[in-house]
User: Which sequence fits this backbone?
């Protein structure tokens, strides 16, 4: 007895073929619709709203970054799931005074947990906030402002381990 006779005991007609084709393409189409829904409802991947405008500012941003690097300033960012500490020193090791230090935390894979933290000056010349940051990878943009001018900008990719789990 053949395999087709074991699976189906009646006659295989054109209606059976039509049903098989409809089931086959129905599965393909439903999977495509599901994948399109999840792709559309998740993170868009956009970092800037208008890439053309951002590209026009690119040379200015690179020039400003090079000027900041030429100063020889050093920064130190320490982030845990309980607090954020930041220090900014000149080439001689003296603390740089700023009116505000603003940190923008961005997840590389989505915008749901993005946040902006303003650090408060500490007695040792650094800046602190008792703001926890969730474990995982972050892209952190640090901006130090004095007298309304941006005196230092730094962008770092960091990994925050979960201290409660020993990571």
Assistant:
């Amino acid at each position: 007895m053949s395999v087709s006779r074991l699976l189906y005991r009646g006659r295989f007609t054109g209606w059976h073929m039509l049903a098989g084709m409809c089931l086959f393409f129905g599965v393909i189409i439903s999977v495509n619709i599901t994948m399109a829904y999840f792709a559309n409802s998740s993170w868009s991947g956009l970092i800037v709203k208008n890439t053309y405008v951002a590209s026009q500012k690119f040379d200015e941003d690179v020039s400003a970054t090079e000027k900041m690097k030429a100063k020889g300033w050093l920064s130190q960012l320490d982030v845990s799931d309980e607090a954020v500490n930041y220090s900014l020193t000149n080439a001689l090791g003296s603390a740089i005074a700023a009116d505000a230090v603003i940190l923008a935390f961005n997840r590389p894979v989505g915008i749901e947990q993005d946040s902006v933290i303003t650090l408060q000056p500490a007695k040792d010349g650094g800046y602190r906030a008792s703001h926890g940051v969730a474990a995982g990878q972050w892209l952190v943009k640090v901006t130090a402002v004095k007298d309304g001018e941006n005196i230092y900008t730094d962008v770092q990719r960091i990994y925050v381990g979960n201290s409660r789990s020993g990571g």
User: Anything to note?
Assistant: Strands lie at 74-79, 84-89, 100-107, 110-121, 127-129, 136-146, 149-160. The chain has a mean pLDDT of 83.
